[in-house]
Design a protein that fits this description.
five-stranded mixed beta barrel; OB fold (Dihydrolipoamide Acetyltransferase, E2P); mainly beta; 3 helices; 15 strands; 259 residues
């Protein structure tokens, strides 16, 4: 992987280009996927049958006898080299260049510009924050300086996938480490759902009171009637799932440990 090879476009389809590699004239061995043709405007990248192609090898499928190639890599060698030099977990700084409904572009302090996007760095929506938010503007603004953790080199789009939340404290971990089962907490109801009600019990932490506990009033106690959004309620911690990052709550005093 990483080798540069040459060949001739044999077939152009909506899914990409088949390439007869130099030295392997018997049949096409190279495949350039449609998203690996260019990082600029796609429209088949102007590739026609018979055109000479220079590409970098992304992967080799020995069983299928094919090499997956990228012509975008050879079109922008400086950018490709920069992205390949990044290491998992490395801290990268930059400026929020654009906000889209699918994520955020970051113009990195180091490295070249991107030929098609506002920035070489990209933060997907889940990697923006540990806590729930309604709009991206609640988390970042265009022009804001950020420090992010490098997650991976996206060879399809020629960008560095980043995490903003990885450089910030994880409120769930702190809550899980400092909270015992059966602990009583006060919280505010944030959402009603068929499965129950969600209660914010700490900054960035919401737990679920399952609906079975809301459908009846134990021992006729009116104080545990179904709450409304905005109500303050008293709950106990019944379970904490670190893998799923969920908190199970109970409104019944002395409820058993369900964790």
């Amino acid at each position: 992987m990483g080798d540069i090879c040459g060949g001739t476009a044999t077939e152009v389809t909506p899914r990409g280009v088949l390439v007869t590699l130099d030295g392997f004239a018997a049949r096409p061995l190279g495949v350039v996927g449609s998203l690996d043709l260019t990082w600029g405007p796609r429209h088949s990248a102007g590739v026609e049958v018979g055109r000479r192609i220079t590409a970098e090898v992304l992967a080799v499928d020995a069983d299928d006898g094919r090499a997956w190639l990228s012509t975008a890599a050879t079109q922008h060698p400086e950018l490709w080299a920069f992205l390949r030099s990044l290491r998992l977990g490395e801290t990268l700084s930059g400026t929020i260049a654009a906000i889209e409904n699918f994520g955020v572009f970051v113009a990195l302090d180091d490295g070249p510009d991107h030929p098609a996007f506002p920035g070489v760095g990209f933060i997907s929506i889940p990697e923006l924050s540990w806590t729930r938010f309604e709009t991206i503007a609640e988390v970042v603004q265009v022009g804001q300086r950020v420090c992010c953790e490098f997650l991976q080199f996206d060879t399809t789009n020629g960008e560095a996938r980043l995490s903003l939340r990885a450089k910030r404290p994880d409120p769930f971990r702190a809550f899980a480490d400092g909270t015992e089962m059966g602990r009583t907490l006060r919280g505010r109801v944030t959402k009603l759902a068929p499965i129950g009600v969600f209660v914010r019990v700490a900054d960035g932490i919401e737990g679920l009171v399952p609906s079975p506990e809301l459908s009846s009033t134990p021992e006729g106690d009116a104080s545990v009637a179904a709450p409304e959004v905005g109500d303050e309620v008293t709950v106990t911690v019944a379970g904490i799932d670190r893998v799923r990052r969920t908190v199970l709550l109970s409104r019944r005093q002395g409820s058993p440990d369900l964790g």
